[in-house]
Specification:
It is built from eleven helices and 28 strands. The protein is of the alpha+beta class and 529 residues long. Helix 7 packs across helix 8 and helix 9 crosses helix 10. Bound molecules: zinc ion.
């Protein structure tokens, strides 16, 4: 996603989040969620029924789901019934945001269907309220783990599942959700709208949007239908603003490979983010339909997420750069291909400044497993430094292997999860290079090279001294532009690896000026005294 403004929210952590999801995932693997959710115009209470098809990977006495309990403010979900494979005599408890269902001893390989009936006012996760025109609307907004505020699930990206949505809403609403549109049935003054995903998704991107929409088929990218869903009052501006959708989607299909989902709906919404990459139906901020707003970069970022973040999903939160760094750099590539190299250089310069500024506030590595407030991970390390790591990896392995590596990584982990090591191994296999130290220094060591430099002419050569003043020396290639008397120049590559290095280069004319990294290919910071 992209932040609309800098969000500094503190999330209340509960016991549900202190346990290891990966351990849970090794026991339960949800195959499919089928949600039937009813909304209305008179209260903010929703009625839900969730059918959850689970494969047990180990024997277990319990099946556990995240579902927000009712709080002191009366918000939260109240469970009324639980059945297992249509049997009603089930022992369960719901407290501290966990629904714990006794299994009566399931074994490895068993598969069961749990049905949970519940109701309540969501405290979060489903945003209910008036849109900017004063019309009531409902938008799922789950990142990072706010899905369990409105439906029971294993609220972690490591457990992907199919999802099927049936939304009952008053007739005046249109409903968009993940997957393929199945049907819409009118019953009196209510409508049932059914969408179904044929591809497993992470709960963070499983959503529905319910509003008085104007809908337009914007075109196709190959065979993929692209549609626009905007508020009726923003119909003309919204259709024009969002018409870039098919072009951006076509670009990424060409660059990365087959689009992972059935359709792409671009949706004006009340998401708290600038954009939220929900699978196959991206939610954008409300004012994105304003013709004075430039949404091209936002569309590129969210559409790139469909491959990275959604289809190939980080195995756990500390690897979120695999989502945000990829979306950021793929947007940079989109601008490079559409507007030229100079645009890429300009964007990488700006992104480098963001990384440097962030390092002055918080000196943490990209893989940050100490942070448990996941909103704090939406920072320049995950986005801009992640993009910079890919930019430097591109130089390390060369353009051909880099783009082949991006495609191979997608095809290998499509509809699944990956870690930073999985990415490294793809590039090591393709390039034949050992990339351990590259990944280690940029992902696990906080900060970046901070460089002091001097040069002097010395009888037919120039002597350049480069000093790394940060704590630990980084290893990287650094281009140096030598500008000679008379105005000619040339670029030489230096291999930097020590805290202090001295390089002697033979020259035919005296050097009057040197420029470090003229093509913006290294994440570094100049230090002048
Ligand atoms: Zn993003």
């Amino acid at each position: 996603m992209r932040a609309l403004v800098l969000i500094c929210l503190s999330i209340t952590l509960t016991s549900a989040f202190s346990q290891s999801y990966l351990k849970r995932w090794k026991t339960f693997d949800v195959q499919k969620y089928s949600f039937s959710i009813a909304v209305n115009d008179s209260t903010n209470s929703i009625n839900g029924r969730a059918e959850i098809d689970v494969l047990f990977k180990k024997k277990s006495d319990v099946f556990m789901l995240d579902l927000k309990s009712v709080d002191t403010d009366d918000k939260g979900m109240f469970v009324t019934h639980v059945t297992v494979d249509a049997v009603t005599d089930v022992v369960w408890s719901h407290k501290n945001d966990l629904l714990v269902i006794q299994t009566n001893g399931v074994r490895k390989g068993d598969r069961h269907k749990y049905t949970i009936s519940y109701f309540g006012v969501p405290a979060d996760g489903l945003i209910i309220g008036n849109n900017m025109h004063g019309n009531r609307a409902f938008f799922g907004d789950n990142w990072p783990n706010r899905a369990h505020h409105w439906f029971p699930c294993i609220d972690h990206s490591s457990d992907k599942a199919l999802v099927d949505w049936t939304i009952r809403a008053p007739n005046h609403y249109d409903v968009v959700a993940n997957g393929k549109f199945i049907d819409r049935t009118v019953t009196g003054d209510h409508t049932y709208t059914h969408w179904s995903s044929t591809v497993p998704l992470a709960p963070k991107v499983m959503v529905a949007g319910i509003a008085d929409f104007a809908v337009q088929e914007s075109g196709k990218a190959g065979t993929v239908p692209v549609s626009t869903w905007v508020y009726q009052q923003d119909r003309d501006n919204g259709f024009a603003q969002y018409s870039i959708g098919p072009e951006v989607l076509s670009y990424f299909i060409g660059k990365i490979g087959e689009y992972p989902y059935e359709k792409l709906a671009n949706v004006q919404s009340k998401t708290r983010f600038g954009g939220m990459e929900n699978a196959g139906n991206i939610f954008y901020y409300e004012e994105s339909t304003d013709p004075l707003r430039d949404v091209e970069g936002l569309f590129a970022h969210e559409i790139a997420h469909q491959w990275f973040g959604n289809s190939v999903t980080e195995i756990d939160w500390p690897h979120v750069w695999l989502s945000e760094g990829f979306a950021t750099y793929l947007t940079d590539l989109y601008f490079e291909d559409k507007y030229g190299k100079a645009r890429l250089k300009e964007r990488m310069t700006n992104e480098r400044e963001s990384v440097i500024a962030f390092s002055k506030k918080r000196m943490v590595p990209v893989i940050d497993d100490a942070t448990t407030d996941y909103m704090q991970l939406l920072n320049a390390n995950s986005y801009q430094k992640g993009a910079w790591i890919l930019h430097m990896l591109r130089r390390e392995v060369g353009d051909d292997i880099f783009f082949k590596g991006i495609q191979t990584y997608y095809m290998t982990y499509r509809d699944s999860n990956a870690s930073s090591d999985d990415l490294r191994q793809v590039f090591e296999t393709l390039s034949g290079k050992n990339l351990k130290s590259f990944f280690k220094q940029w992902l696990y060591i906080p900060g970046h090279p901070r460089l002091k430099h001097t040069f002097k002419n010395d009888s037919g050569r120039v002597i350049i001294e480069i000093q790394q003043i940060q704590k630990k020396a980084f290893k990287f290639p650094l281009d140096i532009k030598l500008v000679f008397e008379g105005g000619k120049s040339e670029v030489r590559k230096l291999n930097i690896s020590k805290k202090k290095g001295s390089f002697k280069i033979a020259t035919s004319h005296p050097v009057i000026r040197i420029e470090l990294d003229p093509d913006v290919r290294v994440l570094w910071e100049p230090v002048f005294n």
